[in-house]
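Case study 2.
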Amino acid sequence: MFRTVCYVEEEVEPGRVAPVPTEIDLGEFPTEAEAVTVARASMAEYLTARRTEYAWWIVRARGQELASWIADSRTQREFMVDLTTSRLVEVA
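Prediction:
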């Protein structure tokens, strides 16, 4: 099982973000591919709404702290963890 989560740094006043990002649980899915598909759809919806707060999405296996897939609203780039090197690799 894989969990998809979105984090948003919401502004408490102009130019000042809340000390802790808002965590939005997007669900748990049987495969990593399904979890990434949901994360991508959430990111597309977020970008279409033209929200200005910084947001990022992660996918991780149940019970794991390390995310296996990461994307963010500023760069709109996606990364996966290469388990052989423990490094982030950009998804082309």
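Strands lie at 2-9, 11-13, 16-17, 22-29, 54-61, 69-72, 78-82, 87-90.
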